[in-house]
Here is the input.
Amino acid sequence: MSISDVTLKLNMDRYLRMALQEDITSEDVSANAVMDRPCRGEVELLCKQDGVIAGLQVFARVFQLLDDTFSIECFCRDGDQVKAGQRAAVLQGDIRALLSGERTALNYLQRMSGIATYTAETAHLLEGTGITLLDTRKTTPNMRIFEKYAVTVGGGTNHRYNLSDGVMLKDNHIGAAGGIRQAVARARAYAPFVRKIEVETETLDQVREAVEAGADIIMLDNMDPDTMKQAVALIAGRAETECSGNVTREKIAALRDIGVDYISSGALTHSAPILDLSLKHLHPVEPQAD
Here is the structure.
């Protein structure tokens, strides 16, 4: 399942409501203390770092859930490169909603933009190779849909979304079944025929067994580059190949020429730093009642 902007829009509200409820159990005491009645205000979204922006609709939706009158004018779109000092958007709404939603909205936007930036930098290193960069399920609980969307904005591709989305037989599945051949046979008998079967391997002997068992995709997990090259030669096109295991941006250069179809990297979601963004210059845009 690939996370598109439509998929995100259809699923995000329940997570955003939980995040807001985590931050506001009864009221925002600080906002209500300084603003005891409705007053329309304006604030700017500013970029404090260079990077790739992602999650603007999520950012805006946080405020929309708090204020039906909220409006936003964006000067960039998801996937755009932004620069430090750039004004990314101007927001208008009830000042109390702008204050109360600020941290939650920025948490999403900074996290998603950080992932999109890290993914874009990693994908750039694979340009011209024909290798597809994949994410993993190593995501923050209740943040998966946002983090995987951010990967696509940055130029990566989503691996399976969750355990219901595909068959992947890892070491413990193989151990439970008694071997790769047995695990693949059981998956073939159980899973719908439209599902591909992926098998994780750590040695060349396991690669041979996975090929003989008829695996559709063979993951080469935590192998050194020379062993992976041997594995790709051994597979000889009889299955798709995926390189995995502690893949970071810094290690990509050594993996460009091994001949795999896919490289999956948990670092895209679990190790990307945030992109620094802030809301500044909040001020009323209508006279305040005495």
Observations:
- DSSP finds ten helices and twelve strands in the chain.
- The longest helix spans residues 95-124.
